[in-house]
Amino acid sequence: MRHPGYLGAILCHTGMGLTFSSLIAIGLSILFIPVLIWRIGREEEMLLTEFGEEYRAYMLETRRLIPLIY
Description:
With 70 residues, the protein is an all-alpha fold. The chain contains 3 helices and no strands. It has one domain. The chain has helices at residues 4-19, 23-51, 53-61. The mean pLDDT is 92.
């Protein structure tokens, strides 16, 4: 996984919503996901610019957020 911190944030926010049985918190967690995916895209553009082919090779070996899926 290239971005374990972002996955941790998603799971933490979702878990808090489930713990407190708050539909608002769960909804905000769901709305938070597209923002993080956008941010990951911007970060990866910067990393490609900085590290070039070395980072591109790393991208081919790993997934962004969810192992074996995304």
